[in-house]
Amino acid sequence: MQLSEIRFLVVDDHDFQRSMLVRMLKRLGVVQIAEAADGAAALKVCDSTPIDIIICDLDMPGMDGMAFIRHVGESGINASMILSSALDRSLVASVGTMTRAYGIHLLGTIEKPTTPERLQELLGLYRVPTAHKVGVAASTFPLDEICAGLAAGQFEPFFQPKVDIASGQLKGVEALARWRHPGHGIIAPQSFIETLEGSGLIDELSWQMIEQSARWCREWRGAGLDISVSVNISLSSLNKASFADHIAGLVERQKLDPHHMILEVTESTAMTNVGQALENLARLRIKGFGLSIDDYGTGYSSMQQLTRVSFTELKIDQSFVTDAAANETCRVVLETSLDMAKKLRLCSVAEGVETEADWAMLQASSCNLAQGYLIGRPMEGKDLLGWVSSWKPSLGLTQALGQ
Ligand code: C2E
Ligand code: CA
Ligand code: CA
Questions:
Q1: What is the mean pLDDT of residues 163-183?
Q2: Which residue has its alpha carbon closest to ligand 1 atom 8?
Q3: Which of 80, 232, 321 to mutate to test the pocket of ligand 1 (most atoms within 8 A of CB)?
Q4: Best CA proximity match to 108, nearest among 307, 327, 351
Q5: What ranges do the domains of the chain cover?
């Protein structure tokens, strides 16, 4: 999408700051810019005109930035947000977390006074909201429609690359479930995972994902790619005694060595039968599967998990990675987690790598692998080989990678 097609709203009570931002946007090629001096005025603009990106100051008289963001989140205004502030970084980062918690797509934060480069970097992250976000909310898919989709084979894995940070080489892919809905197009997992988990029917999706992922991985390995495939497993599935054996059977049928499949688990309150879950996880490890602790650092994926399960990989939640370049607290948590992974001889993976600044920060750390939009978005299996031959040059990361 051209910058000239994107509709902006700049919210700042300070006339000089606001006009400076507007001038900067115009120089970058933006033409559609509305302005507001506080939250209430900004809401009026949003009511009367569609807006794609809001650049919002936080400290304003009248309705401040935080209240405005809450209103945007609650009213379902489908705009992405950039926070612009001169306040303390950890405070701005906290408002960033708040913004995401309201379901708003946060492009990032800028420190005043900002530079055209930083602004351009954040604008580059803008994506037109997907159909499922604008039209079909998660709850609108009833269980029987999801089950009919599963029975009709409408679910498939998309694959997101995981690359070695030191060499840039592809080391694996994560399979992320997508529903190719006949009426709504490609539907993301938020619209069906919870419903399936809540009804105890998530296993059927897991079987299909494992089977298709194993088939793709065997094919890529046959084509000369030395990679593994990671599949997400719901903890509720681990309560069933036959789970590990069933997975092993599926993978064997696809002729993939279990050493090339990693199962990602996130601890959750659903872990009711701890003994049974640990039995399944131990059995999977014995059979050769890799085990990854997903979303590490969030409430549920905790250090206690590490002491109970024989994990092989630690995936640091993207909230730490996304904010680490700008937020010292996040960076300290990230570095401490990476240190721990190293001492425990676990492969460390940083998720949510979106910018070159994230990438540079990780290069200076002990992190092993990186995954995120900067490297590649989740893609169809048939597109992976094409991605492999094109990714480094097109990203302009050759210098960062020392090539
Ligand atoms: P997850 O396992 O943490 O997967 C990573 C999510 O972050 C994916 O969203 C991915 O598309 C997104 N992502 C990747 N890179 C970036 C980035 O640079 N920036 C940002 N902002 N996001 C990035 P997706 O595909 O919507 O999946 C959401 C969640 O749904 C997954 O989170 C996982 O917990 C669950 N899920 C996906 N597939 C399955 C599945 O087959 N079975 C189960 N049980 N859960 C699944
Ligand atoms: Ca995952
Ligand atoms: Ca994750």
A1: 96
A2: 176
A3: 232
A4: 327
A5: 3-123, 131-401
How confident is the model at residue 119, as a pLDDT? 94
Q: Tell me if 162 sits within 8 A of 171, measured CB to CB.
A: yes
Confidence tier at 286 by pLDDT (50, 70, 90): very high
Which class is domain 131-401?
A: alpha beta
- Inform me whether the pLDDT recorded for 373 exceeds 90: yes
Active site residue 351: yes
**Closest-approaching ligand to the CA atom of 160:** 1
Q: Which of these is catalytic: 351, 354, 356, 380?
A: 351
Ligand 1 center from residue 176 Cα (angstroms): 6
Domain 3-123 class, CATH top level:
alpha beta
DSSP string, 264-301: EE---TT---HHHHHHHHHHHHHHT-EEEEEEETSSSS
Q: What number of other Cβ atoms are within 10 A of residue 101's Cβ?
A: 11
The band of 165, judged by pLDDT with boundaries at 50, 70 and 90, is: very high
pLDDT over 90 at 140, yes or no: no
Q: What is the mean pLDDT of residues 205-224?
A: 98
d(CA 174, CA 84) in angstroms, rounded, equals 34
Question: What's the 270 CA to ligand 2 centre distance in angstroms?
Answer: 17
Q: Which ligand lies nearest to the CA atom of residue 230 in the structure?
A: 2
Interval between CA 41 and ligand 1 midpoint (Å): 36
Residues with CB under 6 A from ligand 1: 160, 176-177, 188-189, 193, 202, 205, 209, 232, 234, 264, 294-295, 318, 351-354, 372-373, 378
Q: 155: number of CA atoms within 13 Å, CB side?
A: 27
Supply 293's token pair.
């602790």
User: Residue 136 above 60 pLDDT?
Assistant: no
Per-residue pLDDT reduced to its tens digit, 44-91: 999 999 999 999 999 999 899 999 999 999 888 889 999 999 988 878
